[in-house]
Design goal:
Elements lengths: L2 H25 L13 E3 L2 E7 L3 E11 L5 H15 L12 E8 L4 E11 L1
Antiparallel strand pairs: 1-2, 2-3, 3-5, 4-5
């Protein structure tokens, strides 16, 4: 077999493999670890739930947004903003007070997922 034909086949198979891996990364599912505490409300790229307990109001929020560049602090701030919007009547918390239970950024798809929770005291 001619060496040029072998090289062409190797390059072709290498390009097909690289393209397949790239496409697989784009369709790979993203992490979604959410343990909701009650009925789920969906608003755009956000979902949340809440439950009144003896110790206070437990709120769980999940945000999934597209970001060109990762920014963890903004992800945390936006998640805590959802917590505060659900817990009307309670003092607002800062992003550093929220319990971030899951966070990921997929650099291929640009999707940032954040799950946070907080118990607002009675």
């Amino acid at each position: 077999m001619d060496i040029n034909i072998m090289q062409t086949k190797c390059i072709r198979y290498g390009l097909i493999t690289a393209l397949s891996l790239l496409l697989t990364a784009c369709v790979a599912p993203t992490l979604k670890l959410v343990n909701h505490v009650g009925p789920i409300t969906y608003e755009g790229s956000t979902e949340f739930s809440s439950k009144q307990t003896e110790s206070g109001l437990v709120v769980v929020a999940f945000r999934s947004v597209h970001r060109f560049l990762p920014d963890t602090q903004i992800d945390y701030e936006e998640c805590s903003n959802v917590l505060n919007s659900v817990a009307k009547g309670f003092p607002s918390i800062t992003w550093s007070e929220a319990n971030i239970t899951a966070h990921e950024y997929n650099g291929v798809t640009g999707i940032a997922n954040t799950t946070c929770t907080y118990t607002y005291s009675n």
